[in-house]
Specification:
The protein has 2 domains: 124 residues; 45 residues, no CATH class. It starts with a helix and ends in a 12-residue tail after the last helix. By secondary structure, the chain is of the alpha+beta class. Helices cover 44% and strands 14% of the residues. The strands form 2 sheets. A two-stranded parallel sheet has the order 1-2. A two-stranded antiparallel sheet has the order 3-4. InterPro entries: Asn_synthase, Asn_synthetase_domain, Rossmann-like_a/b/a_fold. This is Asparagine synthetase domain-containing protein. It comes from Rhizophora mucronata (Asiatic mangrove).
Length: 172
């Protein structure tokens, strides 16, 4: 959602933004729940923008034909995680998923959703943004509770002791 908020600042408001979310665990996947909360936050901070959360549901067992093709496209292609990341990016780039007619989740029985194919020609990939900006949920919770200074100390310790797995970037 960080990338989407930054894009909102740069893009003419008359253009809509499609947010693509790929889930291998269905509607209750943590990333799907976070995406729904994130799009609601984006709608609050940028109400004049047209935001569409495109929910792409996938099961690796149903993607046997695509798996070989995707594996031939990605590098490295050595691990199961390489495949998961590659297939998620491939599915997102296709842009085929479900969009809700309203702003609530597809789990709402009163909410109608429809098949949608994003016409976007540019895909900005924000995977890993939380890790790169040290933006895990615990950080957001501390910030909202008014413990910002302590939060900065915590982030510093997070990096000092290498808890970020070597893939973190902090923008102060």
């Amino acid at each position: 959602m960080i990338l989407a908020a930054l894009l909102d600042e740069c893009l003419d408001p008359r253009y809509g933004i499609d947010l693509l979310n790929v889930s291998f665990d269905g509607q209750s996947a943590p990333d799907r729940i976070s995406a729904r909360a994130g799009v609601e936050e984006l709608r609050r901070i940028a109400p004049f923008r047209r935001w569409k959360l495109v929910e792409i549901d996938a099961e690796l067992s149903n993607l046997t034909l695509e798996l070989k093709h995707v594996m031939s496209l990605i590098k490295p292609a050595n691990t199961y995680m390489d495949l998961n990341i590659g297939i998620a990016l491939w599915l997102a780039a296709r842009g085929n998923g479900w969009v809700n007619k309203g702003s609530s989740s597809r789990n709402d029985d009163n909410q109608q959703s429809f098949m949608y194919n994003s016409k976007a020609r540019i895909v900005l990939v924000g995977s890993g943004a939380d890790e790169q900006c040290a933006g895990y949920g615990r950080h957001r919770t501390k910030y909202r509770c008014g413990r910002y200074c302590n939060q900065m100390d915590y982030v510093f310790l997070h990096f000092q002791f290498g808890m970020c797995g070597g893939s973190c970037i902090v923008l102060f």
